[in-house]
């Protein structure tokens, strides 16, 4: 009788201690066959929250829903397609199909511009998606254009050829790393340095245009070398390039704007190599025009600012 009372008292004390967050030392004992006397073990979650919350249901009730770690399919599917286009461009360059390689890089640019907008529209942004997008961009707009232009024209220049290709590839990597670290302190209206997709368009567009016109790559080695070096170095400068992020696609626009978009599509479809390369040459030079204009106006030429820029009433 006294043994039963003693066991009941110990069980009551241990239950009270467990309910108040104290843990009891465990010994190797025989398992209890029936449900009587069974005390569930604390999980990792119960060690961080008081036991009286009652587990997942009560935690969700106080505004702390439990979510499984995972990735979003839709935006990352576009990023995967971007990655595939970069890999496909490299394969086509190895097979000496440089027009297909250039088209694949332009397709990667289109997919890269879509995945971020899809993530924002569907509220599926994630840190995984941001890192995955940067890695895909490094292949599609860094390694792929460098290898395409090297196979097309720079191979005959020896070490000068592969050094220019490496400068471009390293510039793309540095550009993407700086973009990820400075995203919170850069003026959203401008890119800091030439964006990697635009740099890829300069290099791949030149290859596509010259191949379409029937020029052989080795005959234009130094032209290709200059464009590759220009694109690689401009990516790591502080020259501001307009980002077009101020355009609001949800806002109503005049009818003439829709007609202008139709004209742009017609113009591009009339001769894609010439039109696309010409557009990106203008964009690749526009940053220096903005840089010297701001310098002439006495405005800050650096777009990394911690306070708003004063408005000039004379403009």
- The proportion of residues in beta strands is under 5%
The low-confidence runs, each spanning 5 or more residues with pLDDT under 50, are: 1-5, 27-62, 311-315
Q: Into which percent range does the helicity of residues fall?
A: 55-70%
Mean pLDDT: 80
Number of helices: 11
Rg, Å, rounded: 30 Å
Largest sheet: 2 strands, antiparallel
* CATH architecture classification name of the domain at 73-245 and 252-297: Up-down Bundle
Q: Per the principal axes of the C-alpha atoms, what is the gross shape?
A: globular
Strand order, biggest sheet? 1-2
Structural class: mainly alpha
CATH evolutionary superfamily of the domain at 73-245 and 252-297: CDP-alcohol phosphotransferase transmembrane (TM) domain
Word description of this protein:
Helices cover 63% and strands 2% of the residues. The protein has 315 residues and is mainly α. The chain has a domain at 73-245 and 252-297: Four Helix Bundle (Hemerythrin (Met), subunit A). It has a two-stranded antiparallel sheet. The longest helix has 26 residues, at 127-152. It is globular. The chain starts with a helix and ends in an 18-residue tail after the last helix.
Annotate the secondary structure layout.
Elements (H helix, E strand, L loop, with lengths): L1 H18 L24 H5 L7 H6 L11 H22 L3 H24 L5 H26 L6 H24 L7 E3 L3 H18 L7 H14 L5 E3 L12 H16 L1 H26 L18
Antiparallel strand pairs: 1-2
Helix pairs in contact: 4-5, 4-6, 5-6, 5-8, 6-7, 6-8, 7-9, 8-9, 8-11, 10-11
What would a concise description of this structure say?
63% of the residues lie in helices and 2% in strands. It is an all-alpha fold and 315 residues long.
């Amino acid at each position: 009788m006294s043994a039963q009372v003693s066991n009941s008292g110990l069980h009551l004390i241990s239950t009270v201690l467990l309910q108040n967050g104290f843990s009891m030392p465990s010994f190797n004992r025989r398992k209890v066959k029936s449900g009587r006397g069974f005390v569930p073990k604390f999980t990792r979650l119960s060690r961080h929250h008081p036991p009286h919350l009652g587990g997942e249901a009560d935690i969700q009730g106080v505004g702390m829903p439990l979510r499984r770690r995972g990735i979003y399919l839709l935006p990352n599917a576009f990023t995967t397609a971007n990655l595939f286009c970069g890999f496909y461009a490299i394969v086509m360059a190895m097979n000496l199909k440089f027009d297909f390689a250039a088209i694949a890089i332009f397709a990667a640019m289109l997919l890269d511009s879509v995945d971020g907008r899809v993530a924002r529209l569907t509220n599926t942004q994630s840190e995984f998606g941001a890192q995955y997008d940067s890695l895909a961009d490094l292949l599609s707009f860094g390694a792929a254009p460098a290898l395409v232009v090297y196979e097309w024209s720079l191979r005959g220049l020896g070490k000068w050829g592969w050094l220019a290709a490496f400068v471009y590839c390293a510039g793309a990597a540095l550009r993407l790393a700086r973009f990820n670290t400075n995203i919170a302190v850069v003026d959203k209206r401008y890119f800091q340095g030439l964006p990697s997709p635009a740099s890829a368009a300069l290099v791949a567009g030149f290859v596509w245009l010259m191949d379409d016109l029937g020029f052989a790559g080795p005959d234009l080695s130094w032209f290709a070398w200059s464009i590759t070096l220009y694109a690689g170095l401009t990516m790591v400068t502080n020259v501001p390039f307009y980002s077009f992020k101020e355009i609001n696609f949800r806002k109503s626009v005049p009818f003439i704007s829709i007609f202008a978009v139709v004209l742009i599509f017609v113009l591009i479809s009339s001769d894609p190599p010439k039109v696309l390369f010409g557009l990106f040459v203008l964009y690749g030079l526009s940053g220096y025009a903005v840089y010297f204009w701001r310098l002439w106006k006495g405005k800050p030429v650096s777009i990394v600012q911690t306070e708003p820029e004063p408005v000039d009433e004379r403009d």
